[in-house]
Design brief:
single chain, 524 residues, alpha+beta, Arc Repressor Mutant, subunit A, Rossmann fold, 5-stranded antiparallel β-sheet, 5-stranded mixed β-sheet, 21 helices, elongated
């Protein structure tokens, strides 16, 4: 297929489709003229040549008939002789096909700039703006995202384009200013995310392109991380995963708390009364603690820093709570935070999770939170059932799916259900092959004599100090959330056994050794 302006033609020119969905069926003579024109674009085609293309075997057609047929074809195409887009008249000689073909190969991009309206004679007024904006957007998203500029692109509901987002651009230039109206949309649903209006001096580079690119990426982040509504789908992710995914979407950096911290600070400054910002800031502190695993090798969080972040989480969550009882996804976020910090709020977290479940359409997120609370209370079978309900709803292979599998594996480990843990660990390895050296260490069986080579090598190369940090980390992010001591012990057992096998007691944090002296191997 090939596009000319607002028409997409089949290769044989039998039909064409307008952007509004109208199908244009062409006659034999119209098709013959089109095929002859596009064979020789931007070159003169004489009336005699067109007459030959029509295949007048009876000799009944004349050059006057050619003019009539060309004018009829123009009307079919929505063209005119005075303002020709397709067929230009070369007086006394013939016609010229003026339309440029547009490649209709399906496009794939993170963001497409297009369509662009109102260029006309104002191209020079834009002074290369679309190209500079595309470059600025690429830089603002870490340089790894595909940003395309296609001014003539039009949305085709039956098309195969794979576009995450699009930016409609309308331009108007007067004597002094360039006026821009921009509409940022989801690429697939065409939902409007946000509209922007800019007026810049004409004739001078306003140097505002970077600011506009930042505003656009901020809007994308807000759209992904801070939903304005609780009209969520049953499979939608919890708030902390939405925020994580928003940062990763823009930067491809899985350590998402850094990117989110800057944007949350900006959002909070813009509207300090919005409780979403307090909760999202608390969730970002939570992400900082969870993602500190990646910094254990270089700069592990100290006890004072960890406690300070947890105190800030507590304060932010409780301060926002009175204002969010009509926002179920935020109630689930607060329940998540209060369970995590382990400061005596489990009963409150349970009430909030139940309240959210009864008022939310986001079943998967609610089942996930209810499962975590059931596991904390020691109801391991109930937790497993609730996790299965959430896993059934989650998109296979998504970050939410992986997150649920890890949570369920930890619950099964607490209940000493090693068969289930090993099955989940294998499933996780298939989904995240590179994750074995991180979360794989936390799921190992204490009864295994040796581990798979990557884990054995990681343990052997690990200095005892790093083992102490890992055992402390596992206690803080997983074990301590279980009320029963036996469940805490079971979560820690595998890692502690294998750390000692390689490095002895020196690899176990003193806090863990004091709480669970039975985990310490007897010295030979």
């Amino acid at each position: 297929m090939v596009r000319y302006h607002d028409l997409v033609f089949q290769p044989d020119m039998l039909t064409a489709k307008r952007d509004d969905g109208t199908i244009l069926r062409l006659t034999r003579q119209e098709r013959a003229l089109l095929l002859r024109f596009v064979r020789q674009p931007r070159e003169l085609v004489t009336r005699a040549q067109l007459l030959e293309a029509l295949g007048d075997e009876t000799g009944t057609l004349s050059e006057r008939n050619v003019d009539y047929l060309v004018n009829r074809l123009r009307k079919r195409l929505g063209d005119s002789a005075r303002k020709a887009r397709f067929i230009v008249t070369q007086y006394g000689e013939g016609y010229v096909w003026a339309a440029e073909p547009v490649d209709t190969t399906p496009l794939s991009a993170f963001l497409l700039l297009g369509p662009v309206y109102g260029l006309g004679d104002g191209q020079s007024a834009l002074n290369g703006l679309p190209h500079r904006l595309a470059s600025a957007l690429k830089a603002a998203t870490g340089g790894k995202k595909t940003i395309l500029y296609r001014p003539g692109w039009r949305f085709d509901p039956q098309g195969a384009d794979d576009l995450a987002f699009t930016l409609d651009v309308s331009a108007h230039a007067d004597a002094e200013h360039l006026h821009l109206a921009l509409v940022l949309r989801e690429g697939r649903s065409r939902q409007i995310i946000e509209s922007f209006r800019r007026t810049w001096p004409r004739g001078r580079d306003p140097n505002h392109v970077d600011e506009l690119a930042q505003a656009l990426t901020d809007a994308l982040w807000r759209h992904e991380a801070l939903p304005e509504t609780d009209a969520l789908e049953p499979a939608d992710r919890p708030a902390h995963l939405r925020m994580h995914d928003a940062a990763v979407m823009l930067t491809d950096d899985t350590v998402s708390w850094r990117e989110n911290a800057a944007r949350l600070k900006q959002a909070h400054e813009a509207d300090k009364a919005d409780p979403r910002h307090s909760i999202m800031l608390a969730l970002n502190h939570y992400a900082r603690l969870i993602q500190s695993l990646g910094e254990i090798h270089t700069a592990p969080l100290g006890d004072d820093d960890w406690q300070a972040l947890e105190s800030e989480i507590e304060d932010l969550a409780l301060r926002a709570l009175p204002d969010v009882h009509d926002r179920p996804h935020l109630l689930l976020a607060i329940a998540k935070l209060l369970r995590f910090i382990d400061r005596g709020y489990l009963a409150l977290a349970e009430r909030l999770a139940e309240e959210a479940f009864l008022n939310s359409t986001a079943f998967a997120a609610a089942f996930s939170m209810k499962a975590q609370i059931a596991a904390s209370k020691g109801e391991i079978e109930e937790a497993a059932s609730l996790y299965d309900k959430a896993i059934e709803l989650a998109e296979p292979g998504s970050q939410f799916h992986i997150y649920l599998l890890i949570l369920k594996a930890v619950a099964m480990m607490a209940g000493d259900k090693r068969g289930a843990v090993d099955h989940l660990a294998a499933e996780l390895h298939n989904l995240v092959p590179g994750g074995q050296a991180t979360f794989g260490l936390f799921l190992v069986s204490p009864k295994a004599k040796t581990l798979v080579p990557p884990l054995e090598h990681a343990l052997a190369a690990m200095p005892p100090e790093l083992g102490r940090h890992l055992s402390t980390y596992l206690f803080r992010v997983s074990a301590r959330q279980f009320r029963r001591r036996i469940h805490q012990r079971n979560v820690l057992n595998g890692l502690v056994v294998h750390l000692q096998r390689h490095h002895g007691h020196a690899a176990i944090a003193p806090e863990i050794a004091k709480r669970f002296p039975e985990l310490l191997a007897k010295r030979g």
